[in-house]
Amino acid sequence: MNLEEASEAVESVSQVYAAKFGIDRTDVWFLLKLQEELGELTQAFVNLKGMGKDRGQSDADKRTAFADECADVVAHVLLLARNEGVNLEAAIEEKWLRWADPSTVMSAP
């Protein structure tokens, strides 16, 4: 699955979720929801690394919770970018993948 396909699938799920719970997905909602998910990812990371209070989770449960929160953050980045008309594949290629060729690193400003 490429980013565009993932974005379309996540958008579809988000629309169903919003309709079910009466959520108005405004421009601000997309950013605030991403921030909420980032907080949950941070908490899952703290738990994974044993730096939080013991919640009685096994190591496997902590790893699963962390993976789930990573997925939530990525999904909400896709939603935010889509809402703002950002082509993430193009942006990643321009911002990051141009450095994949070692010759471009040496010619950077």
The CATH H-level superfamily is: MazG-like
CATH architecture designation: Orthogonal Bundle
Total strands: the figure is 0
Low-confidence stretches: none
CATH topology: Helix Hairpins
Give the count of structural domains: 1
Percent strand: under 5%
Radius of gyration: 17 Å
Identify the CATH class: Mainly Alpha
- How does the major sheet shape up? none
Helix share of residues? over 70%
Total number of helices = 5
Mean pLDDT: 94
- In whole angstroms, the N-to-C terminal distance is 34 Å
Concise structural overview:
By secondary structure, the protein is mostly helical.
Structural commentary:
This protein has five helices and no strands. It is mostly helical and 109 residues long. The chain has a single domain (3-106), classed as Helix Hairpins (Orthogonal Bundle). α1 (3-21) crosses α3 (59-83) and α2 (27-48) packs antiparallel against α3 (59-83).
